[in-house]
Specification:
- The strands form 3 sheets. Strands 13, 14, 15, 16, 17, 18, 19, 20 and 21 form a 9-stranded mixed beta sheet that branches. The protein has a 7-stranded antiparallel beta sheet with strand order 2-5-6-7-12-9-10, with no helix packed on it. A 5-stranded mixed beta sheet has the order 1-3-4-8-11.
- Helix 6 (about 140-155) runs antiparallel to helix 7, helix 12 packs parallel to helix 14 (about 310-325) and helix 13 crosses helix 14 (about 310-325).
- The protein has helices at about 25-40, 40-55, 75-90, 95-115, 125-130, 140-155, 160-175, 180-190, 195-205, 210-220, 220-230, 240-255, 260-275, 310-325, 330-340, 375-385, 525-530, and strands spanning about 10-15, 20, 395, 400, 410, 415-425, 430-435, 440-450, 455-460, 465, 475-480, 485-490, 495-500, 505-510, 515-520, 555, 565, 575, 585, 595, 600-605.
- It is of the alpha+beta class.
- It binds zinc ion.
- Zinc ion binds next to helix 14 and helix 16.
């Protein structure tokens, strides 16, 4: 019997190599990330691995969480491998692929020198401590990043040496885990371990070896799954980014084994988190945890909200849920996270990434100091900005789904079909989809109609189509497609508010899928306070200046248009009738200045005005 997800996945995303991006902003983001990655010296990325393996290295050590005394060291090199492989697949860039090859060869040399299959930038002693219940930061978390980087190097770049190194590490892991009884292993799993289960499930599917499936199951954290599969949200108090990869692992476990309980846990988790524990941005977590009951977020605004790794992992889980369900809510969520949680967290000048997206008014985006941060999020965001073409398009056995409106094209090789999407979204609300086929092809084109649009419409070859779909569903165009057929979709965007579930006077403004942020100036901000100081072991970035308070908004009516109007420039808005008017722009365009996303909105008090 083969280990396969074939029976469970009715929809699949297109491979990155089949999607080419044309959007100017997105291409710019990819280029900035690429420069950031390529500027890193492979010898420095390998330095602590070599030291651990007893191989001479004269390279300068990296700083931050990659420093030689940091127990997470080596994690970024794992992310780096993934990012190179993703970038090579997304853009066809031979230099990114070559960089991956160099690093894999360096890691293989370290593994060979160690001789046991083990490979890490820290000695095995950390795993001894983990086994003994003594302090050690998160050894399996780090190992997972390295193993995932190796797996991506193999699956996306065809690097067979990476697969050999990965197999050696998997065998070492098997030997480490096997002697542990259930209770002992459950204690080990209390320490953050990344997505070890997901990784091993993926290796099982790739190799069709049952031993990896069994090893993956040892990393399934039943204590977390049980309440979720019973439909109970007991997430309060949990560390968000420890939990999320474990759920992604459960989701992958379902896909390979068909175990319904795992799917139920993952699906319930997805709903409760994306519907009741996320901000308008799609982000979740405050101080890295869920500190409250569901739908209690008004007091959860700080400078440390929305860890970027959380958005990364929520997108991954959302992609899985979409592949099971084709649920337009999953596609809506993915877009929300794409525009407000991913875009905007990379500094355009040097590609440095954010750790948190602060949502307390008056803060600013606190980027790191290059070479002195290497936070978890530096790694996950290096990957996100290398795969911005992911989840734009999906397919099932016969139909094509257009989920995101990003100028791009997709090739469906088996059908000899190409779809070209021309759009200036989100600056414009139209998108032209042109089909290129060798011969007439029967297929349904499923075009997402987002929740945020009103009065959408479509035309086929210039002719208006009746029966456009409602917001929050798909417009399905089933026909025989001829070469050059074109569909013009119009999805009007409007201003609307996103209110805090537990405080309706606390409101954010959105335009289409974009969260708008009010610009609060740069008072008290200097080049030094805009960047986090170098990050010592186990520390997170800290602000070195105070936030300012944002003024309340006085609203003549419940309609946001009564106090916010287009300001002339694309996607720019300006308040009206306030003591001091404020300019609003998409959150993903704000850098190096203070801003506010959530506002206290008071209804103007005049005779006859109803209370809010
Ligand atoms: Zn992180």
């Amino acid at each position: 019997m083969s280990i396969s997800d074939a029976g469970r996945l009715r929809i699949r995303p297109f491979d990155l190599k089949d999607v080419r991006l044309h959007d100017e902003r997105i291409l710019q983001e990819i280029a900035v990330n690429r420069r950031h990655l390529m500027a890193l010296d492979p010898d420095r990325l390998l330095h602590t691995f070599r030291v651990t393996a007893g191989i001479a290295s004269s390279a300068a050590a990296l700083g931050g969480w990659e420093a030689p005394d940091n127990e997470l060291r080596g994690h970024f090199t794992g992310h780096y491998l993934s990012a190179c492989a993703l970038l090579a697949a997304q853009t066809g860039d031979p230099a990114a692929r070559e960089r991956g090859t160099v690093l894999v060869a360096g890691l293989a040399q370290c593994q060979a020198a160690l001789g046991s299959g083990y490979l890490s930038a820290f000695p095995e002693e950390l795993f001894d401590r983990l086994r003994a219940g003594k302090p050690a930061w998160a050894p399996f978390y780090t190992l997972h990043k390295i193993m995932a980087g190796l797996l991506d190097s193999y699956t996306l770049s065809g690097n067979t040496q990476a697969l050999e190194v990965l197999n050696g590490l998997a065998k070492w892991t098997e030997r480490w885990v096997q002697p542990l009884g259930e209770e002992h292993m459950a204690r080990v799993l209390e320490r953050e371990y990344g997505g070890m289960n997901e990784l091993l499930y993926n290796l099982a599917a790739l190799s069709n070896e049952k031993r990896w499936l069994e090893l993956a199951q040892r990393f399934d954290r039943q204590r977390i799954y049980e309440p979720l599969s019973a439909g109970r949200d007991e997430l309060k108090g949990l560390h968000v980014n420890t939990t999320l990869p474990q759920i992604i692992g459960a989701a992958r476990g379902y896909e390979l084994t068909g175990e319904r309980r795992l799917r139920e846990a993952a699906e319930y988790f997805w709903h409760t988190v994306t519907e009741r524990r996320t901000y308008c941005t799609g982000g979740s977590s405050n101080g890295e945890s869920w500190n409250t009951a569901p739908n209690e977020l008004a007091k959860e605004l700080s400078g440390y909200t929305q860890e970027c790794c959380v958005t990364y992992n929520l997108q991954k889980l959302t992609r899985q849920v979409f592949c099971w369900t084709a649920d337009p809510r999953a596609a809506d969520y993915y877009e929300r996270a794409y525009y407000n949680g991913i875009l905007g967290v990379q500094h355009p000048s040097d590609g440095d990434k954010l750790y948190y997206v602060p949502l307390q008014s008056g803060y600013w985006k606190l980027f790191g100091t290059p070479l002195a941060d290497f936070w978890c999020c530096t790694g996950s965001m290096a990957e996100s900005f290398a795969k911005l073409g992911d989840s734009i398009y999906f397919r099932d056995a016969r139909d094509l789904y257009v989920n995101l409106f990003v100028a791009s094209e997709v090739s469906w090789r088996e059908k000899n079909l190409r779809l070209i999407q021309e759009t200036h979204f989100p600056a414009a609300d139209t998108s032209r989809l042109t089909i290129r086929v060798r011969r007439p092809t029967q297929m349904a084109l499923r075009i997402r109609v987002p929740y945020w649009t009103e009065n959408g419409s479509a035309a086929l070859n210039g002719k208006h189509l009746e029966g456009f779909a409602a917001p929050g569903s798909y417009f399905v165009l089933e026909r025989e497609w001829h070469d050059g057929d074109r569909v013009d979709v119009t999805l009007p965007m409007r201003l609307h508010v996103a209110t805090m579930p537990d405080d309706p006077t606390l409101q954010a403004v959105m335009y289409g899928p974009l969260v708008l942020a009010g610009k609060l100036g740069t008072n008290g901000l200097t080049p030094a306070t805009l960047r986090a100081p170098p990050t010592p072991p186990r520390q997170v970035p800290e602000y070195t200046a105070e936030p300012v308070s944002a003024p309340d908004i006085v609203a003549p009516s419940a309609d946001v248009a009564s106090w916010l109007q287009p300001a002339g420039r694309s996607l720019e808005f300006r308040t009206t009738g306030q003591a001091a008017d404020i300019t609003f722009v998409p959150l993903n365009r704000i850098y190096d200045e203070r801003y506010a996303v959530y506002w206290k909105v008071r209804r103007a008090t005049h005779a006859g005005a109803p209370p809010l």
